[in-house]
């Protein structure tokens, strides 16, 4: 599964620019399901048919990643930019970035050596090797993501865009391992999560699920000076109880916990005090949808070096396959 993860995390796909990563996912997923479609917001929806009368289960993993959008090109060819999603200026000085057309760049800041402060956004600029506005190979509105090859530390994997390509990888691997299931499975690779769970909102409306699960990363409390949080790397996937935008449906949470216990899969209970996921959007469409979130613990979220535990990833696949393999009663 590491090769799949590497392919996914190294792909390009800032919010609103998911075409390349969607093509990659489509190539892998199409043979595993009965039908696929792409909706108006670019969500990739893969349907694996189930037994007659099975529940419609929507699984959402977002394809998009945080990025930078060009706002201005000056006479000398330097670029100014805005964030698409939660990017901290602290992660940007010296960062390498890449655009959809393959152009690479670096982020510059003149005060990097003497300043004790974090850079102000308006002081940062991007250098793509251009010498004038005329010869600049990118335009206002073009989007860049971080460039960082995946590092395999053995048990731990580090990459940009673990958020949420690791969720995409878990979903794809579960589709590979899932035998004929009693449920209608809709594997949805969503767009624009990082700018406000927009893809999940419309795809959930379109899919009309009976139950919905997001697959996404969550923060951990296991680093030096971390704020107390009952989630650590290596202790199993997390069953989200609550985050700042979402309270899990009691029946869905219970379904997840009882399945983990029945199958002997380690799990953690998660309360995240900052951030939310596609589960929030899916829960709030139509007349409301019973929803939950299966989280993969991740350190350094929204930096170019997000870290997950490979055992947690494998256990997340096991739990997801287990959840989909039996009839669902909430
Ligand atoms: Co994120
Ligand atoms: Zn995410």
3D architecture notes:
There is one protein chain. The protein has 330 residues and is of the alpha+beta class. It has two domains: 2-65 and 160-324, Aminopeptidase, CATH 3.40.630.10; 67-146, Peptidase M42, domain 2 (Elongation Factor Tu (Ef-tu), domain 3, Beta Barrel). The chain has seven helices and 18 strands. It has helices at 2-9, 19-29, 162-177, 198-207, 250-263, 278-283, 310-324, and strands spanning 35-38, 44-48, 56-62, 67-73, 79-84, 96-99, 104-108, 125-127, 143-146, 151-152, 156-159, 184-190, 211-218, 238-243, 246-247, 268-271, 291-297, 306-309. Strands 1, 2, 3, 12, 13, 14, 15, 16 and 17 form a nine-stranded mixed beta sheet that branches. It has a six-stranded antiparallel beta sheet with strand order 5-4-9-6-7-8, with no helix packed on it. Strand 10 (151-152) and strand 11 form a beta hairpin. Helix 1 crosses helix 3 and helix 3 (162-177) crosses helix 7. The longest helix is centred in the middle third of the chain and has 16 residues, at 162-177. Bound molecules: cobalt (II) ion (CO) and zinc ion (ZN). Residues 163, 194, 302 line the site of cobalt (II) ion. Zinc ion (ZN) binds at residues 62, 163-164, 193, 216-217.
């Amino acid at each position: 599964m590491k090769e799949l993860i590497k392919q996914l995390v190294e792909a390009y796909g800032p919010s609103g620019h998911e075409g390349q990563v969607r093509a990659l996912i489509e190539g892998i997923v199409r043979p595993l399901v009965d039908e696929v479609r792409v909706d108006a917001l670019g969500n990739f929806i893969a349907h694996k048919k189930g037994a007659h009368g099975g529940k419609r289960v929507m699984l959402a993993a977002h394809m998009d990643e945080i990025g930078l959008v060009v706002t201005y090109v000056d006479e000398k060819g330097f670029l100014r930019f805005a964030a698409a999603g939660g990017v901290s200026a602290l992660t940007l000085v010296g960062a390498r970035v890449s655009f959809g057309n393959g152009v690479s760049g670096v982020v510059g800041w003149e005060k990097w050596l003497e300043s004790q402060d974090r850079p102000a956004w308006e002081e940062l600029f991007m250098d793509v090797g251009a010498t004038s506005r005329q010869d600049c190979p990118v335009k206002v509105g073009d989007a860049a993501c971080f460039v960082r090859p995946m590092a395999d530390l053995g048990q731990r994997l580090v990459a940009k865009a673990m958020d949420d390509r690791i969720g995409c990888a878990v979903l794809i691997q579960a589709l590979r391992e899932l035998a004929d299931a009693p449920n209608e499975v809709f594997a949805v690779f969503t767009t624009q999560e990082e700018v406000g769970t927009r893809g999940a909102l419309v795809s959930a409306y379109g899919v009309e699920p009976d139950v919905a699960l997001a697959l996404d990363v969550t923060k951990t409390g296991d680093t030096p000076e971390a704020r107390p949080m009952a989630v650590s790397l290596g202790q199993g996937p997390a069953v989200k109880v609550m985050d700042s935008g979402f309270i899990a449906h009691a029946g869905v949470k219970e379904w997840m916990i009882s399945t983990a216990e029945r199958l002997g899969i380690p799990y953690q209970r998660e309360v995240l005090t900052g951030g939310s996921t596609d589960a929030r959007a899916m829960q709030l469409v139509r007349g409301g949808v019973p929803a939950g979130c299966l989280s993969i613990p991740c350190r350094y979220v929204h930096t170019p070096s997000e870290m997950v535990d490979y055992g947690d990833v494998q256990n997340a696949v096991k739990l997801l396959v287990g959840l989909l393999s039996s009839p669902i009663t909430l």
